[in-house]
Amino acid sequence: MTAPRILKRTGGVFRDLHRELMQVDIDYGQLDVAAFPESLVAEARAVWHQRFSTEFRSIQIMNRFMGEVLAAGDPLEVYAGVVDLIADEVRHMALCADLLQALGGAPALPEPPEIPEKKAFLQASPPERALATAISMLAVNETLSVGFITDLQQRCQQPVVRKVLDATVADEEAHESFGWEYIKRSLQRFPISSLSVWRQIAHDALAPLRQGLEPVLARIPADRRHLDAWPDEDRVALGLYSPERQALVYQQTLEGKLLPQLRALNLV
User: In the chain, at which residue ranges do the beta strands (DSSP E only) sit?
Assistant: First the structure.
């Protein structure tokens, strides 16, 4: 078995540019891991490593998205938005990596490091690929991500974890608005007959979360299907959810925000 590849660090001009990008100075020494049960810390390492991997993939997808909007002939002003998206994803990945290391973990790169792409996606035209990316990543994933992270951020009082969540939420909200506007404009490129394709992309982007969280929702008693029933007081300090609260936040964000916006664009 190949040894995991750990995220590398360096110095010099690269470190200076990285510090400028981060825009936030966090003292990770303020996170006293020994103050938490080891079982909870181990869970936090696993969760923040998954978040690190997700952000690493997001950098790659947003970098690919830049190539797509360029090749699609999108307006000049769109490029600035995508540059901002890429920079934000690098910042989020670094925040997750730093917090993971403060928890005693190691940010191992996802395998394979290069994101695999489906053949059908690569064979699509640049405008088609750009719209597909916007629907799946900037609309579905970012909207749900804002819901999850905001719920944690509003309740977390641990200084280090709160600063990580604060920095992430501030970026994600801008991603979301950019994505919906891009989709609205890009749909105008295509005939109405193509709507079934775009609806399927939205459906497929939601499917993994539905498969993981809707069974949890089904197990929650009717009288406990509200967030107050799952305060997660012992977990939120490390940026963690119980499965029940995560499922309820998913449902709240899906029904209150994501589905109405998809309906407005005739994507469901």
Answer: none
